[in-house]
# Entry
Amino acid sequence: MLAAPHVAEAIVIDAVAKLSRSDPRFTASVDSRVRIDIDSWLGQEHFDLAVTVLPISHAGFETEEFLRIEAVAAMADCHPLARLEAVTVADLAKTSFIATHRRSLIQKEIERQADEAGVTPESRFETQSGMIACQLAARGLGCCVADPFVAHSSGAPGLAFRPFRPAIELRYGFVFPAWQSRSRLARELSGAIAEQAKALWSAIRTSFG
# Structure
């Protein structure tokens, strides 16, 4: 199966471990690919199951949404924005904003909201990696807006999460090759991944505040 590195770390590995404990016959090959290059790896890779953020439109593949989550504002727990119940793009314009890749779904939406609000968040730091953005934020270098699974996978101590408003919705889904039937193992693994993802998102939402 294929998944972005943060998805593998936050969700897939635990799901694989759970299945392997319950079924000694269970086997899996897990590899990671960056979401921004999804069009290329969908066309070139052979896999039974992939996990990614939707939408995906690619001939020959079927998608199945299993969870909707919302991007979070991430900052050091001592950062001024950590005192807020929720963070907006106007709040980002008042502090050092850590920007991510301009092609990312979240960064595009941040820029759209900024244009609409007539503000310009100052990006003192920029990185193509959401995980690095969270690690920079944890060190007090600013605030970033990230996929909550990316923020969780960053492993950065002292990182606080707050809801970002208006919400930036992220739709997680499975990708299956349309030309082959779904194997029992693919069905079992997708079910375990969905269960793990829902539990993690619930725990992250509980951490707000």
